Amino acid sequence: MDTGSSDLWVPAVNCQSQACVVHTQFGSNDSSTLQVSQQKWQIQYGSGSAAGLLVADSLNIAGLTVKRMAFGVATQLSNTFAQFVQYFLCHTNT
Question: What's the farthest any 2 CA atoms get from each other in the chain?
Fold first, then answer.
């Protein structure tokens, strides 16, 4: 979860970017209540970019459920997002 931004997005199952492949991906088989729109979104960070489609679904975090929460599914991610996973894996071995 990105706590430095107010934007919520997750990698989409149809994303073929290297960064999507190394993360858990989300799609219609993961939720019976997912509503996919054709509205596109895009965001640019200092470390990369993400783009895809807007969707809506029930979102539950720590027991709080928001129904029909709008968020993005990323169909394109900059490769810099793959590097964050590699960094984390290299620095969490105990």
Answer: 44
Backbone angles phi, psi at 13, to 5 degrees: -65, -25
- DSSP for 42-83, please give it: EEEETTEEEEEEEEEEEEEETTEEEEEEEEEEEEEE-THHHH
**Angstrom distance (rounded) from CA 15 to CA 2:** 19
Q: What is the pLDDT of residue 41?
A: 94
What is the C-alpha separation between 3 and 76, in angstroms, rounded? 20
pTM (predicted TM-score) = 0.76
* Cα→Cα distances 18→13, 22, 63, 81, 83, Å: 12, 7, 32, 9, 10
Cβ atoms within 10 Å of 26's Cβ, excluding its own: 20
Encoding tokens for residue 5? Answer: 């931004």
